[in-house]
Design a protein that fits this description.
alpha/beta; Rossmann fold; 2 domains; six-stranded parallel β-sheet; 12 helices; 8 strands; hydrolase; HAD-like_sf; HAD_sf; PGP-like_dom2
Length: 234
């Protein structure tokens, strides 16, 4: 079936994950835990930070987990309302840092315009929160290109359940088999399979290397800059 829609993961696919989030989490954790840089990095390691490379490990919580999963790792003693407060703080309390650090992987406006001009419907599927994801896409000036922004808190179960593919199909009226899921982590490829997407396209612009992800994908490209050419070739 011809591809008619593209659902993008956010961090590592559209947004430079390490340049954006490593310094943000360092600062957040130093403030929240009244600790120094070493203490903040020790906490980050619990959620998947690799100090040797200065990056998040492929498949780790920091690379693709939900805010709830990350908060539960840093505050394992909390539950219920107390944990919900920490989740809200991570999602809402540091927007000023995100505005300063948020780094697109490339100029996104020309790319998304090209894809729209190809007649494709576009969406974002992220395990981030909806309020954060919308704010990020608005901040980099491309939110108007997306038919929907789907987040961990807008579906019953986050990636890789397949719920985000199904939601995008419902919203756009497209068959799931006509949707391509594009992402940099194994759970993006699993989301494609579990949701019945037509294609699972891996990008190597995040924390997963070719050996981590290519075997799960139908196609593997260096970055979304290569996506228009790939889709035209199919």
């Amino acid at each position: 079936m011809k591809i008619q829609g593209v659902l993008f993961d956010k961090d590592g696919t559209l947004i430079e994950v390490n340049a954006t989030w490593v310094p943000i989490y360092r600062q957040i954790l130093q403030e929240l835990f009244s600790t120094d840089l070493a203490g903040a990095e020790a906490l980050m390691q619990k959620a998947g930070y690799d100090p040797a490379s200065g990056k998040f490990k492929a498949g780790s919580l920091l690379a693709g987990g939900t805010t709830r999963q990350i908060a539960a790792t840093w505050w394992p003693e909390l539950s219920g309302d107390a944990l919900a407060e920490k989740i809200h703080l991570l999602d809402h309390g540091y927007t000023h840092l995100v505005r300063d650090k948020l780094t697109p992987l490339m100029p996104l406006e020309p790319l998304l315009t090209e894809l729209r001009n190809m007649g494709l419907k576009l969406g974002v599927a992220t395990n981030d929160s909806h309020v954060s994801a919308r704010a990020h896409m608005a901040h980099v000036g491309v939110i108007e290109h997306f038919d929907d922004i789907i987040a961990a808190d807008t579906v019953p179960v986050a990636k890789p359940s397949g719920n985000m593919i199904r939601r995008f199909a419902e919203i756009t009226g497209l068959p799931a088999a006509s949707i391509a899921m594009v992402g940099d982590n194994h759970h993006d490829m699993e989301e494609a399979r579990n949701g019945g997407a037509g294609l699972a396209i891996a990008v190597l612009s995040g924390n997963a290397g070719r050996d981590d992800i290519a075997h799960l994908a139908d196609y593997t490209i260096d970055s979304v800059a290569d996506l228009p050419a790939l889709l035209r070739s199919l």
